[in-house]
Specification:
The chain is mainly α. The protein is built from twelve helices and no strands.
């Protein structure tokens, strides 16, 4: 077996980064264990199921983050990478779902909200209401992530300065939201998730007699995948932010659709 991915990734050597990651995980777990309660009777509505699904995304993400860390700790970088890819998809879908519930509540047409909710909750290719495609969620997630990175860079300017320092002479400049893109993270993780040549022969080679340069490249790739799997956990901050709106959703829903109750 190759030994790549066994040493700490850069993010694991930075105290502030690990503190931030620890805070993200703690907040995610808090959402995953949130009790569903209402200040009014929601009977006859989908409110309970909407919140149940929203917090279900948090539960799934919390489970995935623990799995990633456990796999990394035991040296299983490729499985950690695959779980990281599934984690990003779940973050994207959860964020998209909550955004759609917020949007349609503000729109004020209950029929549209209920139809959209059903597509997330139980849509089927064999039914009249189709499921939400993960690519739709990923496109939404890409927009949200790009806005977040631009906001941080415009406010603090740290990314632009950092990238100027790291960029090789003569290289084309890249926007911060491109370099720090969660979707770049997702695409990178996706490459090894498939049982192709890269994900099998290159990462699980017969090591005895292996060319030294190729071995070094493969080990460096595993080091990179360890970092990217941890960065997938970092992206949970997007779902945490989306979940904050669920605290006011019941009240907004009641105002929009239950004024006579």
């Amino acid at each position: 077996m190759l030994e790549g991915g066994q040493g700490p990734a850069t993010i694991e050597t930075l105290t502030l980064a690990m503190e931030r990651l620890s805070g993200i995980k703690a907040e995610l777990n808090s959402w995953a264990t949130t009790e569903i309660s209402f200040e009014f009777n929601p009977k006859g509505t989908h409110l309970f199921s909407i919140l149940e699904l929203a917090y279900g995304y948090a539960k799934r993400c919390d489970d995935f983050t623990r799995s990633i860390e456990s796999l990394i700790a035991s040296g299983h970088i490729v499985p950690a990478t695959i779980v990281g890819r599934a984690l990003i998809e779940t973050i994207a879908m959860g964020s998209f779902f909550i955004s759609e519930m917020d949007r349609l509540t503000a729109h004020g047409k209950l029929e549209n909200l209920e139809k959209r909710f059903t597509s997330f909750w139980g849509g089927s290719k064999q039914a009249a209401i189709k499921p939400v495609h993960v690519n739709d969620a990923l496109r939404h997630f890409e927009e949200v992530d790009a806005k977040y990175v631009r906001y941080l860079d415009e406010k603090y300017g740290v990314f632009t300065v950092l990238f100027k320092a790291l960029r090789k002479p003569g290289a084309e400049p890249e926007l911060p939201e491109q370099t720090l893109s969660a979707m770049k993270n997702y695409d990178f993780l996706s490459e090894i998730s498939h049982p192709n040549g890269l994900g099998v022969q290159f990462i699980y080679p017969y090591v005895d007699g292996m060319d030294g340069k190729i071995k070094a490249t493969a080990n460096a790739l595993l080091d990179r995948y360890r970092f990217q799997a941890l960065m997938a956990i970092f992206q949970c901050h997007h779902l945490n932010s989306a979940l904050e709106t669920t605290t006011t959703l019941p009240g907004r829903y009641r105002e929009a659709f239950m004024k006579d109750r």
